[in-house]
């Protein structure tokens, strides 16, 4: 799915801003049929939960309503008019002028609907959205809805971050020509001489004539071709590299060059490969440094914010990180656009988190029962997971920053039924995109000697908390156990190992002469221990700390105002360990840059 853009043939209107807002019980049975009567307005994009000083809104379970009027530009006569939502969490039903026009399940990927027949140029249209935050075994992420003794609804969810909901990302009204470009897919390869090939496939609404032109950053044409599919040859290409992004522009034109539709897609030329226990980008070994992150900030919850985006990337650069994982859902596409332009490597993850009933049962409550069964993670859940994979790849397939798909976080991969559940999903991911490695984040109950699915994946991603959830406070014993497990994985599988989670809850400002859990000194000693072990095991090809910043969770006795495992506080202030990480990671980055400069092939640097 192409992200909307303004061009000589396309137009775009943002619908971000303040929308009328109400809880379901506060409006009539059919609020979409007219203007809602409500005193509240909610900002878009944002979660609604923390905006109001109201516990009923913060903890609401079920449907809320958003509504606003928009005037269709009078210049859009004869145009195809589309209403697009970048994310509605978790389920969205859209009405235009009282008519239901769209329904989408999945809270982190976009959807759009053609409303040309309902949107007369120069006239107002009324847009109403029902947003449902309930999670069941048929949703991803999954959950369980129940009823308390007093008749109020209850929501169990198995992921350890707050169930923020709302219109989290931008809403747009867009206009294109009736005959238009529907999609573009680009992949890149290189041959032994350093020449690059840009392979393209264009999907149009009418099968009309297509011309593509590739231009470099100086706007010079470097290759062109006619036809909806083909290959462009680029001699002496400038590669997209970690820390040194370079983007070409691929202009796609449908029909006549003056009157036809056009779309411009940024293209980064780079290759990704797993070879034995190495992860290669552009045939060079790549070692991941960085974090698992969250879309999470005070007041706005999971709402996208460009200020926060730029500041977070500035902190990634300051600390020397080269990568992050979109834990535990697809992030806003603006995040990937920024990563593309700034050379940050991304592991792109679906929203399949919480598929481990017994692990969550021990921490968050609930009886022990099979994770994979007709009553729990069923064929219906798997279908929803598959749809999430389809939508993730459809949106993000062209981003050079995305080097790997992560199709689940901490599933019960040692439980009976795991292989039957995940094998079709792995096959689907490879069918949709054979160019990128596929992984999942493994939870500690699934070890190298009992995990049932890891052989199907390309990279071993491990979430481990020796010294925190196990061997709490005993880092000497934790170091022995960590090294023993990593050596077991390295000996059992000829695959790269990436530690995608490791960390400890740390209260900013809590200092101790003798380090113990929750203190800043313990966080320093904990991470130093892990890094000593990583440095001793060649199969380890990366370290992504949990977490970039403190984040909000639901209330619980192990969570005081959220998860405190951040290297930065929730308002992005560095904890003491940040400068130690900066020293380690910037030295590694400088060393990698020196190696790259000394071994650069033609077109590999600039």
UniProtKB/TrEMBL annotation:
Residue ranges occupied by any Glycoside hydrolase family 2 catalytic domain in the UniProt entry: 272-588
Designated name of the protein: Beta-glucuronidase
Family indicated by similarity: Belongs to the glycosyl hydrolase 2 family.
Single biological process term from Gene Ontology: glucuronoside catabolic process
EC numbers for this chain: 3.2.1.31
Record carries keyword Hydrolase: yes
SUPFAM superfamilies given in the database record: (Trans)glycosidases, beta-Galactosidase/glucuronidase domain, Galactose-binding domain-like
Originating organism: Labedella endophytica
Glycosyl hydrolases family 2 sugar binding domain residues: 12-174
Keywords for this protein: Glycosidase, Hydrolase
């Amino acid at each position: 799915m192409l992200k909307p853009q303004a061009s000589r043939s396309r137009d775009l209107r943002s619908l971000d801003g303040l929308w009328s807002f109400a809880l379901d019980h506060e409006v009539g049975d059919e609020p979409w049929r007219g203007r809602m009567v409500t005193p509240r307005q909610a900002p878009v994009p944002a979660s609604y939960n923390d905006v109001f000083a109201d516990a009923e809104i913060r903890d609401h379970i079920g449907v809320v309503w958003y509504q606003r009027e928009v005037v269709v530009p009078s210049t859009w006569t004869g145009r195809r008019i589309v209403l697009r939502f970048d994310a509605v969490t978790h389920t969205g039903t859209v009405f235009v002028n009282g008519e239901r026009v769209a329904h989408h399940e999945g809270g982190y990927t976009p959807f759009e609907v053609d409303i040309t027949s309902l949107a007369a140029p120069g006239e107002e249209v009324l847009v109403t959205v029902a947003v449902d935050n309930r999670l069941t075994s048929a949703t991803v992420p999954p959950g369980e809805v129940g009823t308390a003794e007093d008749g109020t609804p209850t929501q169990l969810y198995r992921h350890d971050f707050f169930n923020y909901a709302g219109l989290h990302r931008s809403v747009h009204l867009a206009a294109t020509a009736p005959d238009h470009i529907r999609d573009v897919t680009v992949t890149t390869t290189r041959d032994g001489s350093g020449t690059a090939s840009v392979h393209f496939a264009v999907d149009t609404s009418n099968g009309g004539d297509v011309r593509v032109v590739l231009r470099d950053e100086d706007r010079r044409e470097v290759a062109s071709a006619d036809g909806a599919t083909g290959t462009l040859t680029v001699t002496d290409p400038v590669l997209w590299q970690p820390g040194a992004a370079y983007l070409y522009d691929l202009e796609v034109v449908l029909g006549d060059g003056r009157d036809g539709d056009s779309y411009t897609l940024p293209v980064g030329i780079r290759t990704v490969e797993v070879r034995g226990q190495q992860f290669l980008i552009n045939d060079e070994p790549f070692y991941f440094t960085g974090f698992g992150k969250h879309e999470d900030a005070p007041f706005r919850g999971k709402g996208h914010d460009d200020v926060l985006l730029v500041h977070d990337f500035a902190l990634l650069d300051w600390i020397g990180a080269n990568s992050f994982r979109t834990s535990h859902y697809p992030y806003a596409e603006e995040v990937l656009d920024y990563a593309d332009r700034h050379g940050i490597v991304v592991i792109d993850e679906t929203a399949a988190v919480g598929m481990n009933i017994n692990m969550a049962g021990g921490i968050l409550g609930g009886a022990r029962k099979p994770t994979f069964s007709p009553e729990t993670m069923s064929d219906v859940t798997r279908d929803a997971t598959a749809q999430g994979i389809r939508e993730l790849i459809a949106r993000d397939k062209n981003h050079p920053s995305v080097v790997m798909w992560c199709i689940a976080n901490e599933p019960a991969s040692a439980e009976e039924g795991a292989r039957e559940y995940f094998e079709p999903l792995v096959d689907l991911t490879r069918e949709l995109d054979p160019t990128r490695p596929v992984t999942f984040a493994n939870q500690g109950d699934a070890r190298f000697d009992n995990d049932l699915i890891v052989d199907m994946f390309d990279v071993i991603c491990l979430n481990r908390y020796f010294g925190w959830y196990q061997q709490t406070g005993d880092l000497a014993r934790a170091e022995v156990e960590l090294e023993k497990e990593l050596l077991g994985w390295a000996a059992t599988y000829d695959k790269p190992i990436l530690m995608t989670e490791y960390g400890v809850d740390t209260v900013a400002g809590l200092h101790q002469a003798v380090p113990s859990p929750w203190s800043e000194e313990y966080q320093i000693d904990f991470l130093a221990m892990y890094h000593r072990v990583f440095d001793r095991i060649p199969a380890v090809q990366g370290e992504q700390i949990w977490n970039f910043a403190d984040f909000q969770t639901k209330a619980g006795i192990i969570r005081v105002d959220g998860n405190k495992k951040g290297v930065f506080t929730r308002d992005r202030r560095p904890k003491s360990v940040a400068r130690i990480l900066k020293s380690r990671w910037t030295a590694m980055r400088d060393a990698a840059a020196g190696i790259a400069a000394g071994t650069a092939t033609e077109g590999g640097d600039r």
